[in-house]
Amino acid sequence: MDKQAKDGTPAAEAQQKVNKEVAATFKLLMIGDSGVGKSSILLRFTNDEFLPPEEAAPTIGVDFKVKYIEPDDKRYKLTIW
Q1: Within a domain: residue 11?
Q2: Which one, 20, 43, 49, 65, has least CB within 10 Å?
Q3: What gap in Å lies between CA 38 and CA 73, rounded to an integer?
Q4: pLDDT 10s per residue in the chain (81 long)?
Q5: Is the Cβ–Cβ distance between 77 and 26 less than 8 Å?
Q6: Does some domain include residue 59?
Q7: Which domain holds residue 48?
Q8: φ, ψ for residue 19 (rounded to 5)?
């Protein structure tokens, strides 16, 4: 049986995605008042997860995530702070 990545894709296909060269890296900074949902937006965009307000805790310090996107068959790295 073929091995699969966490997202269900075959392991060989997942490895190709990892090895694909990054065309550019973008650093994004989110700023705003406390309690407005910056961390929730970040979590939703990067992990496709959503925490209801009653489960979300305030972020102490700095949080960042990395997401790779592939529009037009080029791979871009987004570092979001």
Answers
A1: no
A2: 49
A3: 29
A4: 455 555 565 666 655 666 689 999 999 999 999 888 899 999 999 999 988 877 888 888 888 899 999 998 899 999 999
A5: yes
A6: yes
A7: 25-80
A8: -80, -15
pLDDT for position 61: 83
The answer to the question of residue 17 being in a domain is: no
Structurally, the chain folds into a number of domains equal to 1
Residues ≥6 apart with Cβ < 8 Å to 27: 79, 81
Three-class SS of residue 32?
A: coil
Instruction: Name the token pair of 32.
Output: 């705003």
Residue 4 tokens, joined: 């699969």
Sheet holding 75-80, edge to edge: 22-28, 75-80, 65-69
Neighbours of 79 (CB within 10 A): 13
- Domain assignment present for 14: no
